[in-house]
Design goal:
Strand content: 15-25%
Structural class: alpha+beta
Distance between the termini: 48 Å
Radius of gyration: 19 Å
Oligomer: single chain
Order of helices and strands: EEHEEEEHEEEHEEEEHH
Largest sheet: 8 strands, antiparallel
Helix content: 25-40%
Shape: globular
Number of helices: 5
């Protein structure tokens, strides 16, 4: 069972489970929480591997009444040669799943278009930890990457306006790319807030860094730098951002 210590705004609470798992859980799910939630094997046929986007191991979980996404945190780059799953433990506030849960809970409570966090866990082993997070799945959405060549200028404008909304709130998305922007039902969403932080909203350097990262992902995927029509669409995105 979950430990009933409250989180900010009482929208979530801390838990400690006998299997050595610690973390945070959204209050509506606290009474049902078990450690198996963080293992795809626990879900059996109700877990389907996500086959696109990101380096990490992720699964779609069929869970009534709202489907979920389970994601394990995996290393990339050179550090992955030493360990794919373990991170150095430097206190609970630095655990990546906990940090992502907190920022998503904050943004969701304030009405931002992000997935609602369900639970975040970590298991410490000596100087290291492993982590996982569960989010409510956004329904009927597809990555912005799928719209790069369709010429929908209104959509590109809306993407720019959505990014600006997050930037005005000081939200720095550490991996803003065309796969972490989802489109569905006339709404834009941002996902994957691993390593996201709040920054000084009056500074422009980090905002430009975010936009440049997004543009690089579009160049890589669709030749934005060499296609005149796509270049025009990027200008439309920036019009939405500046508006």
């Amino acid at each position: 069972m979950a430990d009933r210590s409250k989180g900010e705004g009482q929208s979530y609470q801390a838990f400690v489970l006998p299997e050595g798992l610690k973390g945070l859980v959204a209050a509506p799910y606290a009474d049902d929480l078990v450690s198996g939630w963080f293992s795809p094997g626990f879900w059996g046929d109700n877990a389907q591997a996500v086959d696109s986007g990101g380096r990490g191991a992720a699964w779609f979980i069929r869970h009534h009444p709202r489907d979920w996404v389970l994601r394990h945190y995996l290393r990339g780059g050179l550090m992955a040669r030493f360990s794919r799953t373990r991170y150095v433990y430097a206190g609970p506030t630095t655990v990546r799943s906990i940090a992502e849960f907190r920022i998503l809970a904050d943004l969701h409570q304030r009405g931002f278009p992000v997935p609602r966090p369900v639970a975040a866990s970590y298991r410490r082993t000596g100087l290291f930890y492993e982590a996982a997070i569960i989010l409510e799945r956004l329904e009927n959405v597809v990555p912005f990457a799928g719209f790069i060549s369709n010429g929908d200028s209104d959509l590109w404008y809306q993407v720019g306006a959505t990014i600006r909304m997050f930037h005005d709130a000081g939200v720095f998305h550490a991996d803003l790319n065309c796969f972490n922007i989802l489109v569905g039902g006339g709404q834009m969403y941002l996902i994957d807030f691993d390593k996201a932080v709040f920054k000084d909203g009056n500074r422009d350097d980090w905002k430009q860094s975010n936009l440049s990262r997004l543009k690089r992902s579009l160049v890589k995927l669709g030749g934005l730098d060499s296609d005149r029509a796509l270049s025009a669409l990027w200008e439309t995105l920036m019009l939405g951002y500046r508006a």
